[in-house]
TrEMBL record:
Residues 2-117 form the VOC domain. SUPFAM superfamilies: Glyoxalase/Bleomycin resistance protein/Dihydroxybiphenyl dioxygenase. This is Glyoxalase-like domain-containing protein. InterPro entries: Glyas_Bleomycin-R_OHBP_Dase, Glyas_Fos-R_dOase_dom, VOC_core. It comes from the Bacteria. Pfam families: Glyoxalase (PF00903). It comes from Algoriphagus faecimaris.
Length: 219
């Protein structure tokens, strides 16, 4: 599975552009009155102006090469970005996934992540830079019933459960190392924080095999 396009909500598009363009260095594809879009590796990241008075909060992850976690951590620190430490420090080792992650916040308090996946065998070349961010690898979706939502997604797109897990009533993953939907039960804390997950509006285009499918999740 690949995440082709991810559309999120923003309370302040000016601040969004400042963070994603000026701090992370993503290419600005277009900027309209109520929408901005960035090229993030192989993915397109779009933010729309939040217009109904909600406070959207998201968790999503960017794919980076193997052995890039420490380099990515230092790169974020150099830019003054807030790192979200776990109990074991800034780098989280998911042994069962053969993956390592660094978590951080954007200017709106969204939980972002750099994740490197050993099984993809993507080598780190040179210094860490914006070009080391290869695409959007995960998006967190929040619902009252993760398993029920997963079955709907599976029927519509053919996307299956992630073989490495988890698959529970409170959290589960669908997809492959190349892209995941992480579906959380409302109120469950996002790793590595004590910030409870809550539904926010998401539109996402995924590709499974040769088929692309749009999903929209509401608050």
């Amino acid at each position: 599975m690949e995440i082709l396009t991810l559309v999120l909500q923003s309370e302040n598009l000016k601040e969004t552009v400042k963070f994603y363009r000026e701090v992370l260095g993503f290419e600005l594809l277009f900027r309209k009155k109520n929408q901005v879009a960035f090229q993030v590796g192989t993915s397109e990241l779009v933010f729309e102006k939040e217009t109904i008075g909600a406070t959207p909060k998201y968790h999503f992850a960017f794919l980076t090469p193997n052995h890039s976690s420490e380099l990515g951590f230092q790169w974020l620190k150099e830019r003054g970005i807030k790192i979200l430490n776990s109990g074991d420090g800034p780098i989280v080792d998911f042994e069962n996934w053969k993956a390592k992650s660094v978590y951080f916040e954007d200017s709106h308090g969204n939980i972002l992540e750099f994740i490197s996946r050993e099984d993809l065998q993507i080598d780190m070349v040179g210094n860490f830079s914006t070009q080391s961010i290869l695409g959007i690898n995960e998006i967190g979706v929040v619902t009252d019933s993760p398993l029920e939502m997963a079955e709907i997604i599976k029927a519509k797109s053919g996307l299956d459960y992630f073989p490495k897990g988890p698959k529970g009533t409170d959290i589960l993953a669908m997809g492959e190392d190349t892209g995941l939907l992480v579906i959380s039960k409302k109120g469950r804390n996002w790793c590595p924080t004590k910030s409870p997950s809550k539904p926010s509006r998401i539109k996402v285009e995924i590709k499974v095999g040769n088929k692309s499918t749009w999903f929209e999740f509401s608050r």
